[in-house]
Protein backbone atom coordinates (compact mmCIF):
# COMPACT_ATOMS: atom_id res chain seq x y z
CA UNK A 1 0.00 0.00 0.00
CA UNK A 2 2.87 2.39 0.84
CA UNK A 3 4.45 1.72 -2.56
CA UNK A 4 1.14 2.51 -4.24
CA UNK A 5 0.83 5.79 -2.30
CA UNK A 6 4.43 6.65 -3.20
CA UNK A 7 3.69 6.04 -6.86
CA UNK A 8 0.65 8.32 -6.61
CA UNK A 9 2.76 11.06 -4.95
CA UNK A 10 5.35 10.80 -7.70
CA UNK A 11 2.73 10.83 -10.43
CA UNK A 12 1.65 14.43 -9.74
CA UNK A 13 5.03 16.08 -10.52
CA UNK A 14 5.42 13.76 -13.48
CA UNK A 15 2.02 14.76 -14.79
CA UNK A 16 2.75 18.45 -14.30
CA UNK A 17 6.10 18.11 -16.08
CA UNK A 18 4.53 16.19 -18.95
CA UNK A 19 1.80 18.77 -19.44
CA UNK A 20 4.31 21.62 -19.20
CA UNK A 21 6.44 20.04 -21.93
CA UNK A 22 3.36 19.47 -24.09
CA UNK A 23 2.18 23.05 -23.59
CA UNK A 24 5.60 24.49 -24.46
CA UNK A 25 5.87 22.27 -27.53
CA UNK A 26 2.37 23.19 -28.63
CA UNK A 27 3.12 26.90 -28.16
CA UNK A 28 6.27 26.62 -30.28
CA UNK A 29 4.33 24.85 -33.02
CA UNK A 30 1.41 27.30 -32.96
CA UNK A 31 3.57 30.45 -32.82
CA UNK A 32 4.28 30.63 -36.59
CA UNK A 33 0.59 30.14 -37.39
CA UNK A 34 -0.44 32.85 -34.92
CA UNK A 35 2.18 35.16 -36.40
CA UNK A 36 0.93 34.36 -39.92
CA UNK A 37 -2.67 35.25 -39.02
CA UNK A 38 -1.48 38.43 -37.29
CA UNK A 39 0.47 39.60 -40.35
CA UNK A 40 -2.49 38.82 -42.61
CA UNK A 41 -4.58 41.55 -40.94
CA UNK A 42 -1.88 44.23 -40.70
CA UNK A 43 -0.95 46.98 -43.16
CA UNK A 44 2.58 47.01 -44.54
CA UNK A 45 3.55 49.91 -42.26
CA UNK A 46 2.93 47.81 -39.13
CA UNK A 47 4.50 44.55 -40.29
CA UNK A 48 8.11 45.68 -39.86
CA UNK A 49 7.69 47.53 -36.58
CA UNK A 50 10.14 46.71 -33.81
CA UNK A 51 7.39 46.34 -31.20
CA UNK A 52 5.15 43.28 -31.37
CA UNK A 53 1.39 43.31 -31.17
CA UNK A 54 -0.96 40.60 -32.35
CA UNK A 55 -3.87 42.90 -33.09
CA UNK A 56 -3.07 45.78 -35.48
CA UNK A 57 -3.73 49.43 -34.72
CA UNK A 58 -5.36 49.66 -38.14
CA UNK A 59 -7.27 46.57 -39.22
CA UNK A 60 -6.22 45.75 -42.78
CA UNK A 61 -7.59 42.22 -43.08
CA UNK A 62 -10.31 42.96 -45.63
CA UNK A 63 -7.83 44.64 -47.98
CA UNK A 64 -5.22 41.89 -47.62
CA UNK A 65 -7.64 39.00 -48.09
CA UNK A 66 -9.38 40.75 -50.99
CA UNK A 67 -6.02 41.31 -52.66
CA UNK A 68 -5.06 37.68 -52.04
CA UNK A 69 -8.21 36.47 -53.76
CA UNK A 70 -8.21 38.93 -56.66
CA UNK A 71 -4.63 39.89 -57.53
CA UNK A 72 -3.75 36.30 -58.35
CA UNK A 73 -6.14 33.41 -59.11
CA UNK A 74 -5.88 31.90 -55.63
CA UNK A 75 -9.22 30.04 -55.97
CA UNK A 76 -7.84 28.43 -59.13
CA UNK A 77 -4.68 27.38 -57.28
CA UNK A 78 -6.73 25.89 -54.46
CA UNK A 79 -8.97 24.15 -56.99
CA UNK A 80 -5.86 22.66 -58.58
CA UNK A 81 -4.74 21.48 -55.16
CA UNK A 82 -8.10 19.83 -54.47
CA UNK A 83 -8.12 18.12 -57.86
CA UNK A 84 -4.53 16.85 -57.67
CA UNK A 85 -4.78 15.72 -54.04
CA UNK A 86 -8.09 13.93 -54.65
CA UNK A 87 -6.83 12.04 -57.71
CA UNK A 88 -3.57 11.12 -55.97
CA UNK A 89 -5.45 9.86 -52.90
CA UNK A 90 -7.88 7.73 -54.93
CA UNK A 91 -5.08 6.19 -57.00
CA UNK A 92 -2.97 5.55 -53.90
CA UNK A 93 -5.84 3.73 -52.19
CA UNK A 94 -6.50 1.67 -55.32
CA UNK A 95 -2.83 0.63 -55.46
CA UNK A 96 -1.79 0.46 -51.80
CA UNK A 97 -4.76 -1.46 -50.37
CA UNK A 98 -4.39 -4.64 -52.49
CA UNK A 99 -0.60 -4.52 -52.07
CA UNK A 100 -0.95 -4.25 -48.31
CA UNK A 101 -3.47 -7.12 -48.23
CA UNK A 102 -1.11 -9.36 -50.19
CA UNK A 103 1.78 -8.59 -47.83
CA UNK A 104 -0.36 -9.04 -44.71
CA UNK A 105 -2.61 -12.03 -45.45
CA UNK A 106 -1.16 -14.09 -48.30
CA UNK A 107 1.83 -16.40 -48.03
CA UNK A 108 4.17 -16.78 -50.99
CA UNK A 109 7.92 -16.95 -51.64
CA UNK A 110 9.57 -13.54 -51.59
CA UNK A 111 6.90 -11.83 -49.51
CA UNK A 112 9.38 -10.67 -46.87
CA UNK A 113 11.73 -9.42 -49.59
CA UNK A 114 8.96 -7.35 -51.13
CA UNK A 115 8.11 -5.88 -47.74
CA UNK A 116 11.79 -5.04 -47.22
CA UNK A 117 11.71 -3.13 -50.51
CA UNK A 118 8.69 -1.20 -49.23
CA UNK A 119 10.65 -0.27 -46.10
CA UNK A 120 13.57 0.84 -48.25
CA UNK A 121 11.15 3.01 -50.18
CA UNK A 122 10.16 4.65 -46.89
CA UNK A 123 13.78 5.60 -46.26
CA UNK A 124 14.29 7.35 -49.60
CA UNK A 125 13.30 11.03 -49.64
CA UNK A 126 11.33 12.06 -52.68
CA UNK A 127 13.98 14.62 -53.63
CA UNK A 128 16.42 11.79 -54.34
CA UNK A 129 14.10 10.50 -57.06
CA UNK A 130 13.32 13.90 -58.57
CA UNK A 131 15.88 13.72 -61.39
CA UNK A 132 14.90 10.27 -62.73
CA UNK A 133 11.22 11.19 -62.32
CA UNK A 134 11.79 14.40 -64.27
CA UNK A 135 13.54 12.52 -67.08
CA UNK A 136 10.78 9.89 -67.15
CA UNK A 137 8.09 12.60 -67.20
CA UNK A 138 9.90 14.30 -70.08
CA UNK A 139 10.08 11.05 -72.03
CA UNK A 140 6.37 10.46 -71.40
CA UNK A 141 5.66 14.05 -72.50
CA UNK A 142 3.60 14.86 -69.41
CA UNK A 143 5.59 17.82 -68.06
CA UNK A 144 3.53 20.96 -67.42
CA UNK A 145 0.33 18.91 -67.10
CA UNK A 146 -1.77 17.64 -64.21
CA UNK A 147 -0.36 14.17 -64.94
CA UNK A 148 3.12 15.41 -64.02
CA UNK A 149 1.83 16.41 -60.57
CA UNK A 150 0.03 13.10 -60.04
CA UNK A 151 2.17 10.39 -61.65
CA UNK A 152 5.13 10.35 -59.17
CA UNK A 153 2.86 9.77 -56.16
CA UNK A 154 0.61 6.96 -57.33
CA UNK A 155 2.60 4.36 -55.35
CA UNK A 156 3.05 5.24 -51.68
CA UNK A 157 5.39 3.03 -49.60
CA UNK A 158 4.00 4.66 -46.48
CA UNK A 159 0.45 3.77 -47.51
CA UNK A 160 1.39 0.16 -48.16
CA UNK A 161 3.18 -0.03 -44.81
CA UNK A 162 0.35 1.60 -42.85
CA UNK A 163 -2.40 -0.57 -44.37
CA UNK A 164 -0.29 -3.70 -44.04
CA UNK A 165 0.28 -3.08 -40.34
CA UNK A 166 -3.44 -2.48 -39.78
CA UNK A 167 -4.46 -5.53 -41.81
CA UNK A 168 -2.15 -7.65 -39.64
CA UNK A 169 -4.35 -6.82 -36.64
CA UNK A 170 -7.45 -8.25 -38.36
CA UNK A 171 -7.88 -11.95 -37.46
CA UNK A 172 -7.22 -14.46 -40.23
CA UNK A 173 -10.55 -16.10 -39.38
CA UNK A 174 -12.32 -13.13 -40.94
CA UNK A 175 -10.52 -13.75 -44.23
CA UNK A 176 -11.15 -17.51 -44.08
CA UNK A 177 -14.86 -16.93 -43.44
CA UNK A 178 -15.07 -14.55 -46.41
CA UNK A 179 -13.42 -17.16 -48.64
CA UNK A 180 -15.91 -19.80 -47.47
CA UNK A 181 -18.69 -17.43 -48.46
CA UNK A 182 -17.28 -17.41 -51.99
CA UNK A 183 -15.67 -13.97 -52.06
CA UNK A 184 -12.65 -13.49 -54.29
CA UNK A 185 -9.45 -11.98 -52.92
CA UNK A 186 -10.24 -8.59 -54.47
CA UNK A 187 -13.75 -8.69 -53.04
CA UNK A 188 -12.28 -9.43 -49.61
CA UNK A 189 -10.00 -6.41 -49.96
CA UNK A 190 -12.71 -3.91 -50.90
CA UNK A 191 -15.74 -5.34 -49.06
CA UNK A 192 -14.14 -6.70 -45.86
CA UNK A 193 -10.64 -5.38 -45.20
CA UNK A 194 -10.92 -1.75 -46.26
CA UNK A 195 -14.14 -1.00 -44.30
CA UNK A 196 -12.55 -2.57 -41.21
CA UNK A 197 -9.46 -0.40 -41.74
CA UNK A 198 -11.41 2.87 -41.81
CA UNK A 199 -9.25 4.55 -39.11
CA UNK A 200 -6.09 3.69 -41.07
CA UNK A 201 -7.76 4.95 -44.25
CA UNK A 202 -8.60 8.30 -42.64
CA UNK A 203 -5.11 8.62 -41.13
CA UNK A 204 -3.48 7.88 -44.48
CA UNK A 205 -5.85 10.28 -46.25
CA UNK A 206 -4.82 13.10 -43.93
CA UNK A 207 -1.13 12.36 -44.43
CA UNK A 208 -1.54 12.14 -48.19
CA UNK A 209 -3.63 15.29 -48.61
CA UNK A 210 -1.48 17.39 -46.27
CA UNK A 211 1.75 16.20 -47.89
CA UNK A 212 0.66 16.86 -51.46
CA UNK A 213 -1.29 20.02 -50.69
CA UNK A 214 1.87 21.53 -49.16
CA UNK A 215 4.29 20.11 -51.74
CA UNK A 216 6.40 22.82 -53.36
CA UNK A 217 9.55 21.04 -54.54
CA UNK A 218 8.12 18.79 -57.27
CA UNK A 219 5.51 21.25 -58.67
CA UNK A 220 8.29 23.82 -58.94
CA UNK A 221 10.06 21.40 -61.29
CA UNK A 222 7.12 19.84 -63.10
CA UNK A 223 4.86 22.76 -64.08
CA UNK A 224 5.34 26.27 -65.45
CA UNK A 225 1.81 27.20 -66.47
CA UNK A 226 0.12 29.32 -63.77
CA UNK A 227 -3.22 27.67 -64.50
CA UNK A 228 -1.75 24.35 -63.27
CA UNK A 229 -0.04 25.61 -60.12
CA UNK A 230 -1.03 24.13 -56.74
CA UNK A 231 -1.46 26.45 -53.72
CA UNK A 232 2.15 26.57 -52.40
CA UNK A 233 3.52 27.39 -55.83
CA UNK A 234 0.70 29.80 -56.55
CA UNK A 235 1.23 31.99 -53.48
CA UNK A 236 4.80 32.63 -54.60
CA UNK A 237 3.29 34.90 -57.24
CA UNK A 238 2.92 37.66 -54.63
CA UNK A 239 5.98 39.58 -55.72
CA UNK A 240 6.72 43.25 -55.99
CA UNK A 241 9.84 44.20 -57.88
CA UNK A 242 10.28 47.46 -55.97
CA UNK A 243 9.33 46.45 -52.42
CA UNK A 244 9.95 42.72 -52.45
CA UNK A 245 7.31 40.32 -51.20
CA UNK A 246 3.91 41.77 -50.43
CA UNK A 247 3.71 40.19 -46.99
CA UNK A 248 0.18 41.18 -46.01
CA UNK A 249 -1.61 39.49 -48.94
CA UNK A 250 1.02 36.74 -48.90
CA UNK A 251 0.16 35.86 -45.30
CA UNK A 252 -3.54 36.16 -46.09
CA UNK A 253 -3.14 33.71 -48.97
CA UNK A 254 -1.11 31.38 -46.74
CA UNK A 255 -3.85 31.49 -44.09
CA UNK A 256 -6.51 30.62 -46.67
CA UNK A 257 -4.38 27.75 -47.96
CA UNK A 258 -3.68 26.29 -44.51
CA UNK A 259 -7.20 26.68 -43.11
CA UNK A 260 -8.83 23.74 -44.97
CA UNK A 261 -6.12 21.39 -43.68
CA UNK A 262 -6.63 22.51 -40.08
CA UNK A 263 -10.40 22.09 -40.33
CA UNK A 264 -10.04 18.64 -41.91
CA UNK A 265 -7.61 17.47 -39.24
CA UNK A 266 -9.73 18.74 -36.36
CA UNK A 267 -12.76 16.98 -37.83
CA UNK A 268 -10.93 13.66 -38.25
CA UNK A 269 -8.42 13.70 -35.38
CA UNK A 270 -10.17 10.89 -33.48
CA UNK A 271 -9.85 8.47 -36.42
CA UNK A 272 -6.38 9.82 -37.19
CA UNK A 273 -5.01 8.84 -33.78
CA UNK A 274 -6.78 5.48 -33.89
CA UNK A 275 -5.44 4.78 -37.36
CA UNK A 276 -1.87 5.64 -36.40
CA UNK A 277 -1.91 3.51 -33.25
CA UNK A 278 -4.10 0.66 -34.51
CA UNK A 279 -1.24 -1.19 -36.19
CA UNK A 280 1.13 -0.75 -33.27
CA UNK A 281 -0.43 -3.52 -31.18
CA UNK A 282 -1.18 -6.89 -32.68
Automatic annotation (TrEMBL):
**What keywords appear on the UniProt entry?**
Cell membrane, Membrane, Transmembrane, Transmembrane helix, Transport
**What GO CC annotations are associated with the protein?**
plasma membrane
Task: Indicate the principal place this protein occupies in or around the cell.
Answer: membrane
Instruction: Give me the segments passing through the membrane.
Output: 20-41, 81-104, 113-140, 146-167, 188-210, 247-268
Is Membrane among this UniProt entry's keywords? yes
**Any Pfam family hit:** BPD_transp_1
What's the protein's topology in the membrane?
A: Multi-pass membrane protein
What CDD domains does the record point to?
TM_PBP2
Q: Which GO terms describe its biological process?
A: transmembrane transport
Q: Where in the cell is it found?
A: Cell membrane
ABC transmembrane type-1 domain residues are 78-268
Keyword Iron assigned to the entry: answer is: no
Superkingdom to which the source organism belongs: Bacteria
* SUPFAM superfamilies (alphabetical): MetI-like
Q: Which family does it belong to?
A: Belongs to the binding-protein-dependent transport system permease family.
Protein name, as recorded? Carbohydrate ABC transporter permease
Q: Which organism is it from?
A: Bradyrhizobium forestalis
Amino acid sequence: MSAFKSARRLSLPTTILRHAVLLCTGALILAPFVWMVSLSIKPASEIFRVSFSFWPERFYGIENYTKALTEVPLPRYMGNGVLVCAIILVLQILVCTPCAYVLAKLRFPGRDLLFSMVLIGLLLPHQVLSLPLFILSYQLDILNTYAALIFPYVISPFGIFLFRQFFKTIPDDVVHAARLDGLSELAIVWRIMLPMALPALIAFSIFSVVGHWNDLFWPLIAVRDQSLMPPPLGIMVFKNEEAGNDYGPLMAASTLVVMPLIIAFLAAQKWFVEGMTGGAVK
